[in-house]
Specification:
Length: about 210
DNA sequence: CGTACGATTCCC
DNA sequence: GGAATCGTACGG
């Protein structure tokens, strides 16, 4: 199978909300030392520069948000609730500060490795009750998919999807129906329907 | 320097 | 329903 990695030009070819929809059906890939994991992106959210829910809203440049002001196709990974991380694709022109949050994947490669990574949660000893994670739960949520894919802020934050071992493949199909609705877990900006997901796809998070 | 909190997940 | 857990943001 050809790598078919999306070029950097793909990420700047659309406005952020359009990109969030164009990413649906594309495949996120991580070629790690432990093995390859990948999954079809089935759920995303857009975060815009005039959007109160966006970390970089209103040109707020800090050490954390700096990657969001990089070129489209930059990776933005941040720590949330002290124990989980979220993976974003930086969008729009350099200096704008917008991104697309990836919220769920349909696993395609390395499900065994995904399950192992999910079991190895910090402070958690795997038990029989956690020994088997359903395939549809492996990447069902932004924190879950980051852990299953082995994505880490230390190594991937600020990298480019056009180079390195974390990248996105072009979609091999066009999603038939895309649903838009309110974003999940935010306290402001709830009036904007910037969450997008593939209709009837069982790997989409419940929110 | 102190502290409140978050684009979440899991357990009671 | 509530805890876990810590870097970040912001005020003093």
């Amino acid at each position: 199978m050809p790598e078919d990695r999306l070029p950097l030009s793909f990420y700047s070819a659309y406005d952020t909300r359009t990109l969030a929809q164009k990413l649906l059906g594309c495949e996120l890939v991580h070629e790690s030392e432990d093995g390859v994991t990948s999954g079809i992106i089935v759920e995303t959210e857009a975060y815009l520069q005039d959007d109160p829910a966006c970390h970089a809203a209103f040109n707020r440049r800090t050490a954390r948000t700096e990657p969001m002001f990089g070129v489209a196709g930059t990776v933005y990974v941040y720590l949330i609730y002290g124990m989980y991380q979220c993976f974003n694709v930086v969008s729009n022109a350099q200096g704008v500060g917008e991104a697309v949050l990836v919220r769920a994947l349909q696993p395609t490669t390395g499900m065994g490795l995904m399950e192992l990574r999910r079991q190895l949660r910090p402070g958690k000893i795997p038990t029989l009750s956690t020994a088997n994670i359903a395939m549809k739960e492996l990447c069902r949520g932004p924190g879950k998919l980051v852990r299953a894919m082995g994505i880490e802020r230390e190594t991937h934050n600020g990298t480019l999807l056009s180079e390195g071992n974390l990248y996105i493949r072009a979609a091999s199909f066009t999603p038939s129906d895309i649903i838009a609705g309110p974003r999940i877990g935010i306290n402001v900006g709830g009036e904007f329907p910037y969450r997008y997901y593939i209709k009837d796809n069982i790997f989409v998070s419940k929110g």
